Amino acid sequence: MGRKKIQISRIMDQRNRQVTFTKRKFGLMKKAYELSVLCDCEIALIIFNSTNRLFQYASTDMDKVLLKYTEYSEPHESQRSREERLG
Fold first, then answer.
1. Its Gene Ontology biological processes (predicted)?
2. Which residues are within 8 A (CB) of 38 and not within 5 positions of it... i.e. 6 or more apart?
3. Long-range contacts for 45-49 (Cβ within 8 Å, ≥24 apart)?
4. DSSP assignments along the chain, one per residue
5. In the prediction, which pLDDT does 38 show?
6. ∠ at Cα 7 (2, 86), nearest 5°?
7. What is the pLDDT of residues 37-72, one digit of tens each?
8. pTM for the complete prediction?
9. Gap between the Cα atoms of 61 and 59, Å rounded
10. Check: CATH 3.40.1810.10 for 14-86?
11. How far apart are CA 86 and CA 14, in angstroms?
């Protein structure tokens, strides 16, 4: 049996929101690591929490990946949040 679908909206309870953030941050970093190993790609992941604390993961040197990103001028795939797309 699969997992039940959850509604994606802001978690109102501060403690539950922090627990969810911590678990999902760990899961996201694990997925980034797995993708970098399995597919031999460079990954830079930057996360700021609600109190502006920085968390980051890079499969190689973060500064080198960010420099590569800022110097990249070819068309590329990009995604934004649904709210940002709707304006």
1. cell differentiation; heart development; positive regulation of transcription by RNA polymerase II
2. none
3. 49/21
4. --PPPPP-S---SHHHHHHHHHHHHHHHHHHHHHHHHHHT---EEEEE-TT--EEEEESS-HHHHHHHHHH--S-------HHHHH-
5. 98
6. 125
7. 999 999 999 999 999 999 999 999 999 999 999 999
8. 0.79
9. 7
10. yes
11. 27
